[in-house]
Input
Amino acid sequence: MAAGTYEGCADHRRAEWRAPLEPGDELDLDQWASVLDEFEGHARELDPRPLIECRFFGPCGTRD
Output
């Protein structure tokens, strides 16, 4: 049995999103609110069990 990996497989890796801002730029909060609303809907549909198993037991497809 695999010892697990913090990274997980390609489907379960964390993604980081950053606002591409330069000094003096302004963040459009209305635009970001709509992006976050969309992400929240997707996050609520996810089942956390596969993510937990992938990280605890090893990348998906590598465990017996």
User: Anything to note?
Assistant: The radius of gyration is 17 Å. The mean pLDDT is 75. The first helix runs from residue 29 to 45.
